[in-house]
Amino acid sequence: MKKPIKPARENISPSDLTFALSTCKRCLWIKYWYKVSAPMVMPLVGTLSLLQEEFFQRADMPTIDASLRPGKVTKWSEFVKSKPLQINGEETRWRILGKYDLLSSNDDGTVGLIDCKVSDSERDSGNFYSPQLEAYAYALENPAAGKPVTVASMGLLVWQPTHAIGDNSDNSGFGVYQKYVAVERDHDNFIQTIGDFINVLEGELPDAGVDCQSCRYISARNSLDSL
Ligand code: SF4
Which of 16, 22, 23, 24 to mutate to test the pocket of ligand 1 (most atoms within 8 A of CB)? Predict the structure, then answer.
């Protein structure tokens, strides 16, 4: 597969710094150079995320977690776009573009960034999501347009479904265990991760992973065409 003269998209999605980067990088490369992505079927994810986000709109930050600075959630589901990313002092063609979940305006003029998750995955740790949240923070602190803000806190707000509630069809639902997972700022790790990411994109088409079910399916499906 030849690399086109220009990538089909030059805006890096923060979520690609977690799942996509931790697995095979071939699909990632194709996504950015050709804008072709594998279809994803994630029933309920959008609905559950929206319900959770709506629940915390205008919430007082210390009611979410006592460690958070005084302030209120004042923005949600807004896109942020960064200036071009700089790696080793050189400007690249790549920018961050993504939509955060919740953003607080703190009383001291800083902001707090919260990523909502409805999940029971062991993977909901600060380390795994640090590059993704740092990418949003980078875009907020280095915006393509408008005033930069200082991101004082970042964290995951996790709802883990634990039990069914209610006693009839009018009031039944799911109960959740809620936890706030603070994610420490780690700019150096972000720069390392985004640098690796850009190196993959600027390189040649990576090899396919060996264990991917999708790639096995594509190969098996393609081999049928020659029958
Ligand atoms: S192994 Fe194949 S389908 Fe799986 S991520 Fe890599 S290129 Fe994509």
Answer: 24
Q: Is residue 88 part of a domain?
A: yes
47-55, long-range: CB within 8 Å, 24+ apart, which pairs? 48/118, 48/159, 49/101, 49/116, 49/117, 49/118, 52/116, 52/118, 52/157, 52/159, 53/77, 53/101, 53/102, 53/116
Report yes or no on 197 lying in a domain. Answer: yes
Number of domains in the chain: 1
CATH code, domain carrying 166 = 3.90.320
CA of 213 to the centre of ligand 1 (A): 8
Q: What is the pTM of this model?
A: 0.91
Q: Is residue 18 part of a domain?
A: no
110 is a domain residue: yes
Along the chain (227 residues), what's the average pLDDT of each consecutive run of 10 residues? 92 89 85 89 83 95 97 97 93 97 98 93 81 97 97 95 91 92 94 94 89 84 87
